[in-house]
Amino acid sequence: MTLTVKTFSSLDEAAAALSSDRRARYLGGGTLVMRALNEGDVSISTVVRANDQALTRIDASGPRITLGAGVTFAKILAERDLGFLHAPARSIGGPAVRNMGTVGGNLFAQNPYGDFTVALLALDATVAVQGTFGARDIGIEELLQSRERQAGALVLSVSCTRPASADAFRYRKVSRIKPKGGSVITLAAHLPIGGGRIAGARIALGSMAPTQIRARAAERALEGCSLDGTTIAAAAAAATEGTSPSDNALGSAWYRCQIVGVHLRRLLSGQE
Question: Into how many domains does the chain fold?
Fold first, then answer.
């Protein structure tokens, strides 16, 4: 099979090439696309690349941070101002993968991967994309729900609000091989607190459904409450509601349902 590689200097050109060819895929770090090609994926006939430096830009100077889609996890770990994202970035593969893997690519990673996206979902991130419709911002939940239909769109950047405190955002990945293994389950929680009570709780789960999802029942158990033992127990008990995990080599659906509440309780309690 012949593979065509197209490299562009502008995002407009790259987006146009991507959206005009159903068999084209964007090549960022290559951890997804190159793996697919090496495994014989014949649905890809064209690889699109862009040299625009906007894709690797980080803006972490204010309360809302923006990460270019081509920002690697190694680069996030090198940024002191992005400390709240260090745990999810560090949980992605080993050093070689973190040096290559990108924020934009992780949005399309299938289970048991896509752990950084779990963190972005908990943080209510907004994704800037460009395609046949032009450039627009899309909420991360909408993107994930329509991910299969987004193949022709170029992700430009991801932005989210910085948590108000170190305790407001929490992240945990459960894997068989640490730190680089695939996810058994992944959890992230954003818990803004005002007047001693949680306001706007968001809990995200990975490997508990075909794509990353919010644990809405657990969020409802937390909303408007103080983060005490009773509230945490209620949230943990509701953790499986609305989930639909599958079986794979890392764990069965039954096992995932058994442990997700345990790890949510530990996450919310601040336990290691």
Answer: 2
